[in-house]
Write a structure and sequence with these properties.
Structural class: mainly alpha
Number of helices: 12
Distance between the termini: 19 Å
Largest sheet: none
Radius of gyration: 22 Å
Shape: globular
Strand content: under 5%
Helix content: over 70%
Number of strands: 0
Protein backbone atom coordinates (compact mmCIF):
# COMPACT_ATOMS: atom_id res chain seq x y z
CA UNK A 1 0.00 0.00 0.00
CA UNK A 2 1.10 3.57 -0.74
CA UNK A 3 2.05 5.27 2.54
CA UNK A 4 0.26 8.45 1.45
CA UNK A 5 -2.88 6.55 0.46
CA UNK A 6 -6.10 8.53 0.90
CA UNK A 7 -9.11 6.46 1.92
CA UNK A 8 -12.19 7.29 -0.18
CA UNK A 9 -14.69 4.96 1.44
CA UNK A 10 -15.45 6.85 4.62
CA UNK A 11 -17.71 9.59 5.96
CA UNK A 12 -16.45 13.14 5.52
CA UNK A 13 -17.60 16.60 6.48
CA UNK A 14 -17.64 19.40 3.92
CA UNK A 15 -14.20 20.73 4.87
CA UNK A 16 -12.67 17.25 4.74
CA UNK A 17 -13.99 16.70 1.21
CA UNK A 18 -12.42 19.92 -0.02
CA UNK A 19 -9.12 19.29 1.78
CA UNK A 20 -8.79 15.71 0.55
CA UNK A 21 -9.74 16.72 -3.01
CA UNK A 22 -6.72 19.02 -3.31
CA UNK A 23 -4.50 16.59 -1.39
CA UNK A 24 -5.35 13.82 -3.85
CA UNK A 25 -4.72 16.12 -6.82
CA UNK A 26 -1.31 17.15 -5.45
CA UNK A 27 -0.26 13.54 -4.93
CA UNK A 28 -1.46 12.25 -8.29
CA UNK A 29 -1.19 15.24 -10.64
CA UNK A 30 1.65 13.92 -12.80
CA UNK A 31 0.26 10.42 -13.26
CA UNK A 32 -3.32 11.61 -13.74
CA UNK A 33 -2.41 14.27 -16.31
CA UNK A 34 -0.37 11.77 -18.33
CA UNK A 35 -3.47 9.60 -18.72
CA UNK A 36 -5.80 12.55 -19.36
CA UNK A 37 -3.61 13.68 -22.26
CA UNK A 38 -4.13 10.27 -23.88
CA UNK A 39 -7.88 10.07 -23.29
CA UNK A 40 -9.04 13.68 -23.34
CA UNK A 41 -6.39 15.39 -25.47
CA UNK A 42 -8.28 15.30 -28.78
CA UNK A 43 -11.69 16.30 -27.29
CA UNK A 44 -9.89 19.11 -25.44
CA UNK A 45 -8.31 20.52 -28.64
CA UNK A 46 -11.63 20.26 -30.50
CA UNK A 47 -13.36 22.08 -27.64
CA UNK A 48 -10.80 24.91 -27.74
CA UNK A 49 -11.25 25.27 -31.51
CA UNK A 50 -15.04 25.32 -31.09
CA UNK A 51 -14.77 27.91 -28.30
CA UNK A 52 -12.50 30.12 -30.40
CA UNK A 53 -14.85 29.95 -33.37
CA UNK A 54 -17.86 30.73 -31.17
CA UNK A 55 -16.06 33.83 -29.86
CA UNK A 56 -15.30 34.87 -33.45
CA UNK A 57 -18.91 34.29 -34.55
CA UNK A 58 -20.20 36.27 -31.57
CA UNK A 59 -17.95 39.21 -32.39
CA UNK A 60 -18.95 39.18 -36.05
CA UNK A 61 -22.58 39.94 -35.13
CA UNK A 62 -21.53 43.36 -33.78
CA UNK A 63 -19.78 44.32 -37.00
CA UNK A 64 -21.43 47.61 -38.19
CA UNK A 65 -21.66 46.36 -41.76
CA UNK A 66 -23.51 43.24 -40.63
CA UNK A 67 -25.79 45.35 -38.45
CA UNK A 68 -26.66 47.61 -41.39
CA UNK A 69 -27.43 44.58 -43.54
CA UNK A 70 -29.60 43.01 -40.86
CA UNK A 71 -26.85 40.57 -39.92
CA UNK A 72 -27.97 40.53 -36.31
CA UNK A 73 -31.02 38.58 -37.45
CA UNK A 74 -28.91 36.23 -39.56
CA UNK A 75 -27.61 34.36 -36.54
CA UNK A 76 -27.47 30.88 -38.06
CA UNK A 77 -23.67 30.82 -37.96
CA UNK A 78 -23.69 31.83 -34.29
CA UNK A 79 -26.25 29.17 -33.39
CA UNK A 80 -24.31 26.47 -35.23
CA UNK A 81 -21.05 27.47 -33.54
CA UNK A 82 -22.81 27.46 -30.15
CA UNK A 83 -24.25 23.98 -30.73
CA UNK A 84 -20.87 22.65 -31.85
CA UNK A 85 -19.22 24.14 -28.75
CA UNK A 86 -21.85 22.61 -26.46
CA UNK A 87 -21.49 19.21 -28.17
CA UNK A 88 -17.70 19.20 -27.85
CA UNK A 89 -17.98 20.41 -24.24
CA UNK A 90 -20.28 17.52 -23.31
CA UNK A 91 -17.96 15.01 -24.98
CA UNK A 92 -14.90 16.45 -23.23
CA UNK A 93 -16.76 16.65 -19.92
CA UNK A 94 -17.81 13.01 -20.14
CA UNK A 95 -14.38 11.70 -21.19
CA UNK A 96 -12.60 13.75 -18.52
CA UNK A 97 -14.92 12.61 -15.74
CA UNK A 98 -14.74 9.02 -16.95
CA UNK A 99 -10.94 9.11 -16.94
CA UNK A 100 -10.61 10.74 -13.51
CA UNK A 101 -13.11 8.36 -11.92
CA UNK A 102 -11.55 5.26 -13.47
CA UNK A 103 -8.22 6.52 -12.19
CA UNK A 104 -9.70 6.81 -8.70
CA UNK A 105 -11.29 3.36 -9.00
CA UNK A 106 -7.89 1.85 -9.88
CA UNK A 107 -6.32 3.89 -7.08
CA UNK A 108 -8.78 2.41 -4.57
CA UNK A 109 -8.41 -1.15 -5.85
CA UNK A 110 -4.61 -0.88 -5.76
CA UNK A 111 -4.52 0.92 -2.41
CA UNK A 112 -2.71 3.86 -3.98
CA UNK A 113 -0.89 1.95 -6.72
CA UNK A 114 -1.97 2.96 -10.23
CA UNK A 115 -2.05 0.62 -13.22
CA UNK A 116 -2.42 2.94 -16.22
CA UNK A 117 -3.36 0.02 -18.46
CA UNK A 118 -6.35 -0.80 -16.26
CA UNK A 119 -7.41 2.87 -16.28
CA UNK A 120 -7.23 3.02 -20.09
CA UNK A 121 -9.22 -0.21 -20.43
CA UNK A 122 -11.91 1.14 -18.12
CA UNK A 123 -12.15 4.40 -20.06
CA UNK A 124 -12.44 2.53 -23.37
CA UNK A 125 -15.09 0.18 -21.95
CA UNK A 126 -17.27 3.03 -20.66
CA UNK A 127 -16.51 5.52 -23.44
CA UNK A 128 -19.96 5.35 -25.05
CA UNK A 129 -21.72 5.29 -21.69
CA UNK A 130 -19.95 8.36 -20.27
CA UNK A 131 -20.57 10.33 -23.48
CA UNK A 132 -24.25 9.37 -23.47
CA UNK A 133 -24.54 10.07 -19.77
CA UNK A 134 -22.86 13.46 -20.20
CA UNK A 135 -25.34 14.44 -22.91
CA UNK A 136 -28.36 13.07 -21.06
CA UNK A 137 -27.49 14.60 -17.69
CA UNK A 138 -26.71 17.91 -19.40
CA UNK A 139 -30.09 17.90 -21.15
CA UNK A 140 -31.90 17.04 -17.91
CA UNK A 141 -30.25 19.94 -16.08
CA UNK A 142 -30.79 22.29 -19.04
CA UNK A 143 -34.50 21.58 -19.31
CA UNK A 144 -34.81 21.94 -15.55
CA UNK A 145 -33.29 25.42 -15.83
CA UNK A 146 -35.57 26.28 -18.75
CA UNK A 147 -38.70 25.24 -16.86
CA UNK A 148 -37.64 27.23 -13.83
CA UNK A 149 -34.27 27.97 -12.26
CA UNK A 150 -35.02 26.14 -9.02
CA UNK A 151 -35.77 22.72 -10.64
CA UNK A 152 -32.56 23.10 -12.63
CA UNK A 153 -30.54 23.73 -9.47
CA UNK A 154 -32.22 20.79 -7.76
CA UNK A 155 -31.47 18.45 -10.68
CA UNK A 156 -27.84 19.59 -10.89
CA UNK A 157 -27.05 17.97 -7.53
CA UNK A 158 -28.00 14.36 -8.42
CA UNK A 159 -26.67 14.81 -11.97
CA UNK A 160 -23.26 15.69 -10.54
CA UNK A 161 -23.03 12.17 -9.08
CA UNK A 162 -24.15 10.08 -12.06
CA UNK A 163 -20.63 9.53 -13.44
CA UNK A 164 -19.40 8.25 -10.07
CA UNK A 165 -22.29 5.81 -9.84
CA UNK A 166 -21.72 4.62 -13.42
CA UNK A 167 -18.02 3.96 -12.86
CA UNK A 168 -17.86 2.81 -9.24
CA UNK A 169 -21.00 0.66 -9.30
CA UNK A 170 -20.64 -0.41 -12.95
CA UNK A 171 -24.28 0.40 -13.68
CA UNK A 172 -26.14 1.36 -16.84
CA UNK A 173 -26.83 4.97 -17.79
CA UNK A 174 -30.48 4.78 -16.70
CA UNK A 175 -29.61 3.09 -13.40
CA UNK A 176 -26.92 5.70 -12.68
CA UNK A 177 -29.49 8.47 -13.07
CA UNK A 178 -32.17 6.78 -10.98
CA UNK A 179 -29.72 5.81 -8.22
CA UNK A 180 -28.40 9.37 -8.05
CA UNK A 181 -31.78 10.55 -6.75
CA UNK A 182 -31.85 7.80 -4.14
CA UNK A 183 -28.33 8.70 -3.02
CA UNK A 184 -29.12 12.36 -2.34
CA UNK A 185 -32.38 11.65 -0.55
CA UNK A 186 -32.26 13.55 2.78
CA UNK A 187 -28.72 14.68 1.87
CA UNK A 188 -29.51 17.24 -0.83
CA UNK A 189 -28.67 20.38 1.15
CA UNK A 190 -25.25 19.29 2.36
CA UNK A 191 -24.40 18.00 -1.11
CA UNK A 192 -25.52 21.27 -2.65
CA UNK A 193 -23.49 23.27 -0.12
CA UNK A 194 -20.38 21.21 -0.90
CA UNK A 195 -20.80 21.66 -4.66
CA UNK A 196 -21.55 25.36 -4.22
CA UNK A 197 -18.42 26.08 -2.17
CA UNK A 198 -16.35 23.93 -4.50
CA UNK A 199 -17.75 25.90 -7.43
CA UNK A 200 -16.78 29.17 -5.78
CA UNK A 201 -13.22 27.95 -5.24
CA UNK A 202 -12.89 26.78 -8.84
CA UNK A 203 -14.39 30.06 -10.07
CA UNK A 204 -11.86 32.11 -8.08
CA UNK A 205 -9.00 30.04 -9.48
CA UNK A 206 -10.36 30.39 -13.02
CA UNK A 207 -10.58 34.17 -12.64
CA UNK A 208 -6.81 34.28 -12.21
CA UNK A 209 -6.44 32.86 -15.72
CA UNK A 210 -8.94 35.41 -17.05
CA UNK A 211 -6.80 38.38 -15.98
CA UNK A 212 -4.78 38.65 -19.25
CA UNK A 213 -7.96 38.80 -21.35
CA UNK A 214 -9.52 41.33 -18.96
CA UNK A 215 -6.43 43.55 -19.03
CA UNK A 216 -6.29 43.42 -22.82
CA UNK A 217 -10.00 44.25 -23.11
CA UNK A 218 -9.68 47.18 -20.70
CA UNK A 219 -6.61 48.53 -22.53
CA UNK A 220 -8.28 48.12 -25.93
CA UNK A 221 -11.44 49.85 -24.73
CA UNK A 222 -9.51 52.74 -23.19
CA UNK A 223 -7.47 53.21 -26.37
CA UNK A 224 -10.56 53.08 -28.59
CA UNK A 225 -12.36 55.60 -26.38
CA UNK A 226 -9.43 58.02 -26.51
CA UNK A 227 -9.28 57.68 -30.30
CA UNK A 228 -13.05 57.96 -30.70
CA UNK A 229 -13.33 54.60 -32.47
CA UNK A 230 -15.86 52.85 -30.24
CA UNK A 231 -18.43 52.91 -33.06
CA UNK A 232 -17.23 49.45 -34.11
CA UNK A 233 -17.64 47.09 -31.13
CA UNK A 234 -16.47 44.12 -33.20
CA UNK A 235 -12.98 45.67 -33.34
CA UNK A 236 -12.64 44.80 -29.66
CA UNK A 237 -12.78 41.10 -30.53
CA UNK A 238 -9.60 40.80 -32.57
CA UNK A 239 -7.41 37.71 -32.88
CA UNK A 240 -5.46 38.65 -29.72
CA UNK A 241 -8.65 38.79 -27.65
CA UNK A 242 -9.87 35.49 -29.16
CA UNK A 243 -6.53 33.83 -28.33
CA UNK A 244 -6.48 35.16 -24.74
CA UNK A 245 -10.13 34.26 -24.22
CA UNK A 246 -9.50 30.75 -25.55
CA UNK A 247 -6.55 30.29 -23.20
CA UNK A 248 -8.74 31.45 -20.32
CA UNK A 249 -11.40 28.93 -21.36
CA UNK A 250 -8.74 26.20 -21.56
CA UNK A 251 -7.80 26.80 -17.93
CA UNK A 252 -11.46 26.63 -16.90
CA UNK A 253 -11.93 23.33 -18.72
CA UNK A 254 -8.84 21.84 -17.06
CA UNK A 255 -10.22 22.85 -13.67
CA UNK A 256 -13.07 20.38 -14.22
CA UNK A 257 -10.53 17.85 -12.92
CA UNK A 258 -10.99 19.31 -9.43
CA UNK A 259 -14.75 18.95 -9.70
CA UNK A 260 -14.45 15.35 -10.91
CA UNK A 261 -12.25 14.37 -7.96
CA UNK A 262 -14.54 16.12 -5.48
CA UNK A 263 -17.63 14.33 -6.82
CA UNK A 264 -15.91 11.00 -6.11
CA UNK A 265 -15.38 12.02 -2.48
CA UNK A 266 -18.98 13.27 -2.30
CA UNK A 267 -20.26 10.00 -3.74
CA UNK A 268 -18.34 7.83 -1.26
CA UNK A 269 -19.37 10.08 1.62
CA UNK A 270 -23.05 9.71 0.73
CA UNK A 271 -22.70 6.01 -0.02
CA UNK A 272 -21.04 5.47 3.35
CA UNK A 273 -23.82 7.33 5.14
CA UNK A 274 -26.45 5.28 3.31
CA UNK A 275 -24.87 1.83 3.15
CA UNK A 276 -21.65 1.89 5.25
CA UNK A 277 -19.95 -0.32 2.65
CA UNK A 278 -16.49 0.99 3.51
CA UNK A 279 -16.91 0.18 7.19
CA UNK A 280 -18.18 -3.32 6.34
CA UNK A 281 -15.20 -3.92 4.06
CA UNK A 282 -12.81 -2.89 6.83
CA UNK A 283 -14.52 -5.28 9.25
CA UNK A 284 -14.27 -8.11 6.70
CA UNK A 285 -10.59 -7.37 6.08
CA UNK A 286 -9.91 -7.48 9.81
CA UNK A 287 -11.67 -10.81 10.03
CA UNK A 288 -9.60 -12.21 7.16
CA UNK A 289 -6.31 -11.25 8.84
CA UNK A 290 -7.13 -13.06 12.06
Amino acid sequence: MNNSYIEFKKKRELGDILTDTFAFLRQNAKSLFSILIKTSGIPFVLLLLASAYYTYASANIFNPINLQNGGIFDSGNLIISLLVMIATLLVFYGVLFGTVLHYIKTYIDGKGVIDQGVVMQGVKKDFGSVIGLGILSGLITFFGLMLCVIPGIYLYVPMSLVFSILVFRNTSVSDAISESFQLIKNEWWITFATLFILGLIVWVISMVFSIPALIYTFTKTFTAASEGSLADPSAMFDWVFIALNTLSSAAQYVLYIITAIATAFIYYNLNERKHATGALEQIDSLGNTE
